[in-house]
């Protein structure tokens, strides 16, 4: 069954926490991964790969550059489940 | 130009820093214990013990540091930060600060974990940090980044002689005049099933599984191989002029460092000990010292049947009858063998022995091998007053010999 966007956000926040130690409440939809959360490209790739496993989606490398904000990632995952 | 030691750092099987390690060493403690990891039974590893770091690196470093650094680099960073803080964390010109930091094996955990991931989950799951984490210069690079050292960051790799060679190389850097300070040392984190199985396969390691704390027993007739340890040691080295100008606390002089090679056998030491003897003589020559000036040796003494005798033979060649006047410490009895980190922690011990005028004990010497009639220190022993000289030896597979010499400062 497809997850709601809130559920995707919560799951994504867990992955960000595992990778960076940031608390889940820091991971808000309007936050930019690089600007606001200080997540670099290496951590981003690790989060993307873990998100593929967690949510059962494929996130092609060329798509990753479009995932600027948390909302971008949540929407992509929710739409492609 | 004189070179001084102004900072020390260590994380070892005996303690998470220099003071706890030194205290445990003087107290005759063993850092060796039975491994609780499930892989020991899973792979039927014939050696079931090792000297694990007393304080896990994850307790000290941030989550991000733990994730992005191989365990070897984690230990390196902890030791280097302690040494740098101990040196007063001075403001320096980055271009005149260098790093010489070794490992014997490199990022073996990262490499083998990544291969497991590749086999089980495919290439897409291999972590993007895998290459910088596994490269043998990773520990030196991590320290260089952390301390903003821009005077050159290098890694000497010569198996178990690596970190003594790194310290010897620091002398060259400082004497070149290119840099004022060098953070030197070495690390290892190879308590992984593959290296343990591989060393066991060549019968280099002890199998005293029922008494792990007694397994590392240099010079004892019942020694049966070395015991793997993990951790790191670091020294801050600088020119005396630079240290004095900034009012630094000074532990000792680093007065010589020599590297030679046997070209004899890939793993066996030259039974004549000529290459090792040349390294000792050369280090003493750099120190402007004679063999009779040496009062203390931190021996390589890994507790292998042939290695301990070969080192004795080399020392006998150099020191002759004076050898019986030298207080010999074989601290791997307590720490195990940190491979590429061994020389660094033993350099820390040698410096502290001079500073505190105390040679540390060699534990587990129940029945001294009659073929090795050395004066082995078995409880902390006072060293003489006045200027005194000590050396630390390290030898490695590949026929590498590295010897460094320190002189007391005050």
UniProtKB/TrEMBL annotation, chain A:
Keywords, comma-separated and alphabetical: Phosphopantetheine, Phosphoprotein
Keyword Phosphoprotein belongs to the record: yes
Residue ranges constituting the Carrier domain according to the UniProt record: 6-81
GO terms for cellular component: cytosol; membrane
Domain spans labelled EAL: 1-81
Molecular function, one GO term: acyl binding
Listed InterPro entries: ACP, ACP-like_sf, EAL_dom, PP-bd_ACP
Keyword Transferase belongs to the record: no
Cross-referenced Gene3D superfamilies: ACP-like
GO biological process: lipid A biosynthetic process
SUPFAM superfamilies given in the database record: ACP-like
Protein name: Unannotated protein
Naturally occurring in which organism (per UniProt): freshwater metagenome
Species lineage: unclassified sequences, metagenomes, ecological metagenomes
């Amino acid at each position: 069954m497809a997850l709601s966007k809130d559920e995707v956000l919560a799951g994504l926040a867990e992955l960000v926490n595992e990778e960076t130690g940031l608390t889940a409440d820091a991971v808000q939809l309007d936050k930019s991964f690089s600007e606001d959360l200080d997540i670099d490209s290496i951590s981003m790739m690790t989060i993307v790969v873990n998100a593929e496993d967690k949510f059962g989606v494929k996130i092609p490398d060329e798509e990753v550059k479009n995932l600027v904000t948390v909302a971008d990632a949540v929407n992509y995952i929710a739409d492609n489940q | 130009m004189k070179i001084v030691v102004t900072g020390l750092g260590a994380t070892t099987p005996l303690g998470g820093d220099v003071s706890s390690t030194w205290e445990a060493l003087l107290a005759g403690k063993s850092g060796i214990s039975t491994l609780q990891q499930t892989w020991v039974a899973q792979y039927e590893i014939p050696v079931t013990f090792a000297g694990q770091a007393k304080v896990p690196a994850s307790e000290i470093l941030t989550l991000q540091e733990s994730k992005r650094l191989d365990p070897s680099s984690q230990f390196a960073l902890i030791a280097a930060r302690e040494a740098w803080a101990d040196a007063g964390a001075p403001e320096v010109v980055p271009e005149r600060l260098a790093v010489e930091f070794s490992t014997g094996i490199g990022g073996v955990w990262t490499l083998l974990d990544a291969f497991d991931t590749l086999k089980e989950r495919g290439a897409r799951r291999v972590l993007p940090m895998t290459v910088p984490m596994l490269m043998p210069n990773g520990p030196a690079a991590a320290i260089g980044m952390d301390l903003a050292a821009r005077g050159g960051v290098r890694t000497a790799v010569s198996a178990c002689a690596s970190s003594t060679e790194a310290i010897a190389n620091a002398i060259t850097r400082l004497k070149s005049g290119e840099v004022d300070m060098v953070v030197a040392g070495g690390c290892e984190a190879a308590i992984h099933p593959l290296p343990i199985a591989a060393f066991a396969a060549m019968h280099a390691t002890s199998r005293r599984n029922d008494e792990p704390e007694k397994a590392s027993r240099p010079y004892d007739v019942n020694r049966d191989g070395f015991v793997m340890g993990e951790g790191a040691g670091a020294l801050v080295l600088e020119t005396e002029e630079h240290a004095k100008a900034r009012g630094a606390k000074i532990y000792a002089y680093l007065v010589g460092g020599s590297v030679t090679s046997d070209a004899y056998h890939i793993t066996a030491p030259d039974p004549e000990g000529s290459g090792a003897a040349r390294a000792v003589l050369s280090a003493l020559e750099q120190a402007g010292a004679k063999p009779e000036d040496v009062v203390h040796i931190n021996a390589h003494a890994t507790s292998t049947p042939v290695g301990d005798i070969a080192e004795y033979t080399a020392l006998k060649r150099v020191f002759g009858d004076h050898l019986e006047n030298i207080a010999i410490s074989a601290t791997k009895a307590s720490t195990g063998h940190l491979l590429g980190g061994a020389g660094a922690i033993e350099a820390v011990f040698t410096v502290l022995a001079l500073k505190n005028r105390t040679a540390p004990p060699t534990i587990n010497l129940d029945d001294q091998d009659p073929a090795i009639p050395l004066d082995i220190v078995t409880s902390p022993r006072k060293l003489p007053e006045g200027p005194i000289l000590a050396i630390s030896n390290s030898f490695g597979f590949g026929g590498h010999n590295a010897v460094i010499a320190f002189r007391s400062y005050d």
